[in-house]
Amino acid sequence: MNPADDSPLAPLPEDWERALAVVAHPDDAEYGIASAAALWTSQGKHIAYVLATHGEAGIDSLSPEECARVREAEERAGASMVGVEEVEFLDHPDGTIEYGLPLRRDLAAAIRRHRPEILLTINHRDTFGGRALNMADHRHVGLALLDAVRDAANRWVFPDAGEPWSGVRMVAVNASPSPTHATDVTGFLDLGIASLCAHRRYLEHIGQSPEEVDAMLRGFAETAGARLGVDHAVAFEVFDF
């Protein structure tokens, strides 16, 4: 999100009951989506997470097998803190996810299994704004998810991947450099911060302390909140379907 842009953001619609967050790695959803998930689960909405990888390449001092075990456990713990109990891991390779038909098929199948009205993901753009380059896994998963919405709705696309689902109304993309909407998470930000702090081994590996996590997420939420007219918010770029 461009901090120089202070134009107002529209409230994200909340007249729905089921959402699915689809991201590449353990910890991706916790940089913003988790705070919104905490709000929504408190309202009785159903939120599930699907991760394309097990995060097995995320901590180079651990073998991929051990890293996957650690990061899966941290993801489930963090998700539980915001009321998300359904967490799935697909088997795409961490760090080398490819955009293509296998990924689109797996994401279409996930949409058909979970039957969400809203899909949530993180930034698929080339950058996070300016010259901050986004990584390939994020770009490929986000783009494939946008395409998988239509795939999931078409009976004759991936016909072996479950019964079609055409009920997705929108895809809401967190951490986009061009947000259009935001969700008021005032009173729920601390849960989102705790959800990210649950990724203790990973945060230690990248050298990010709990205090730094708190300051970072609070800063993001205050910036988005100012554009929504509330204390704390999570911003999204919304694509309608």
Please provide the ordered H/E string of secondary-structure elements. EEHEHEHEHEEHHHE
Unreliable runs, pLDDT <50, ≥5 residues? none
- Helix proportion of residues, in percent? 25-40%
Kindly give the count of domains.
1
Gyration radius, rounded: 17 Å
Range of strand content: 15-25%
| N- and C-termini, Cα separation | 23 Å
Strand order of the largest sheet: 1-7-8-6-5-2-3-4
Total beta strand runs: 8
CATH topology: Rossmann fold
Overall mean pLDDT: 96
Give the overall shape: globular
Instruction: Tell me what the CATH architecture is.
Output: 3-Layer(aba) Sandwich
By DSSP (H or I, 4+ residues per run), the number of helices equals: 7
* Largest sheet entry: 8 strands, mixed
Please state the structural category. Answer: alpha/beta
CATH superfamily: LmbE-like
